[in-house]
């Protein structure tokens, strides 16, 4: 890789670190190519990305960003998982690490907050942004549904009473 390619990679990574809500750092030593492809596809489905970059170049790209606290974690064969959703990258990385012991989560950062491996696991247990939005919409719609049920309930009760009297008259 020549100097201009390295400079391009550093500027690209710097932009990624500035825009990402969360960055997870993990060791991937021993993962097969098929496992890496599986991890990449799972990340892509969740709206996250996995990047393997030279640690020295990633360290340079971290300078001046909010997630600069992860620089000490960049030792050995590391990969970076990042996403705009604060939960997506952490959730996929933790789920993948459960099924594949070769992926070892070292930590990460969410904004200026650095995370240890337990912090990443705790972040992964939170619902995603889309799930939270769905719950909020459900909570907002629930009162309207209850009001509609209450407004139709008296008429339904009245219809049942008339139906009961009609059956009583038919039986007699």
Uncertain runs are none
| Average pLDDT number | 85
Q: Helical stretch count?
A: 6
Task: Identify the CATH class of the largest domain.
Answer: Alpha Beta
Describe the protein's architecture and organization.
It is a single chain. The chain is α+β, with helices and mostly antiparallel strands. It has helices spanning 3-19, 33-46, 55-62, 88-99, 117-124, 129-171, and strands spanning 22-27, 48-51, 78-83, 104-110, 113-115. Strands 2-3-1-4-5 form a 5-stranded antiparallel sheet. β4 and β5 form a beta hairpin. The longest helix has 43 residues, at 129-171. The termini are far apart.
How would you summarize the topology of this molecule?
Blueprint: H1 3-19, E1 22-27, H2 33-46, E2 48-51, H3 55-62, E3 78-83, H4 88-99, E4 104-110, E5 113-115, H5 117-124, H6 129-171
Antiparallel strand pairs: 1-3, 1-4, 2-3, 4-5
Helix pairs in contact: 1-3, 2-4, 4-5
Task: Characterize this entry briefly.
The chain has 172 residues and is of the alpha+beta class.
Key traits:
172 residues, alpha+beta, Alpha-Beta Plaits, 2 domains, five-stranded antiparallel sheet, 6 helices, 5 strands, 15% strand
